[in-house]
Structure formats: structure tokens, C-alpha cells
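ok so I'm stuck.
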Amino acid sequence: MPANPARPPSVSRRRHLLAMGLGGAALATLSRTAPAQAPAEPSPSASALPLPLTAQTTEGPYYFDAGKVRQDITEGQPGVPLEIRFAVVDAAGRPLAGKRVDLWHCNAAGVYSGYAGQTDDHDQRVSTKGQTFLRGSQPVDATGTAVFHTIYPGWYEGRATHLHMKVLDGSRAMLTTQCFLPDALSEYLYTQLSAYRRKRVRQTLNSNDGIALQAGDTTLGAVREANGRYIATLTLVVDPSATSKAERFPGPGAMMGGPPPGPPPDHGKLVALEGEARVAAIVPGVKL
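replied:
not stuck anymore, here's the structure
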């Protein structure tokens, strides 16, 4: 069956945001996170100072090399179309042409492909063994760019909205990191669109996700609205001599049927914020 993805919200977005209690502050935030153009290729002569390296983060339990070199990783998954554009450079701003970017993330329901033992919104165990949706690889071109076509990711307990990626030189991972997306936009999509709507309220936001807080600004993606899709951009500044720390998550074993690790053990202690406190946590610069 061909995909029938939801389109980005129309001009009625303002009315819905007001109904959610986010109002003008959220709209201003979406505007701040939506540059008019994708970031230009960094110029080595633009600054004498080296660019800050993109923070390494945990790989997480759901990575495997699907062997899929492709731009479109959707595989019919429902959701809002999202184009992801990575600029992959070294600290001097030079493009790392010929390297490879792997991208993987959960679907609108918060489930990853390729694994058994995941939990859906109804606390039922689900299996996606043998599936490869929302996974793929792209070579970095001569301008330092790697582009993917996918859907806006959903969420699951214990984590803020995020994408996973690796930058590889052959079999060596130079960077393993995550990209965090604006909470104000995520909040709108998750509450207004049926593909994303859940019976639970998100507890974990960018402002209280431990991985996001530790990684910092170098992992915050910028999102802008385009015709029929959103476009997310992030510059990945990589040390070409680095090697990502190997993690001991159960990869093939989990794919064969054993459940992968769940959310961080303290996620149950978090309480979903409401009202003004939630707006303050979601919208940068808003204070109670």
C-alpha cells in the first residue's frame, strides 16, 4: 500500500496552539527554530576559531546496520513528512566528503524497526523483527551534505523526541550522536494528529531529558516549514580521527526475540507537567 502521510499543519495551527495554551510564545519559538534557508556550507576562512565538535551520545539499544543505502527511509510509515539535511564537516569547516551517515529513529507510535519486546501505547508487547523502516545510510557528498526523507518521529517513555545518527569512515564510527527536535512543534503534532496521539502525556522533554542536557546545543536541530514537509537541519562537526565508544547493547540477540533495555530506570519518577509549568518547560525563554 502506498504511504498516505499527514501533511504539515495548515494556517489553523495558530488556533490550535492557542487552544493548547501555548499561544504566541510557541509560535514565536517555532519561528526562531525555523531559519529561512538551510545552513550554508561552513567556510574554513569564516573564522580562525575551530568549530565546536558535535557531542557524542549513547547509541541506544536499537541500532543495527540495515544495509540500506537510500534517501527515502519511510517504507510506508504514516506521519508528517520530514526532510533531514546534515552538513558533515571537520572542526575547520571542511566537508567530510565520502564519509557515511547512518540514520535511524522510531515511528509515530514510538516503535523501532527490527526488534521484539517493545511496548506500545496499550502496554502490549510488539515485534518488528525483520522490518527495516526508518533506517538508512547516505554518503556525504562533495559539499558535505547528506539528505534523508522520512517522517517526524514519535516518542516513547523516558525520552524526548530525537533522531539517532552515526558518521562512519568505512566500519569505524567517528561520531555517534542524537538530534533533538523543538518541543513546541512536537507538542502540537502529538496532540493534534491521530497518527501521533497517545493516551499518555509526554513526561520527558528536551528540558529534562538527561541525554539532551548532557549533549547540549550541538545536538539541537533547527526545523523550518516547506511545501508539503518540514525540513530539519543539523551540522555534524566531526573529528576525523575519533572513534565512537563501543556500547554493549544487545543487538542481534534483541532482534532474535529478547527484549532490549527499556527506558532509563528513573523515568517513572517523572510527572507530566501541566499548564503554565508545561509551557515554560517546552518554550525557550518563557518563565513562570
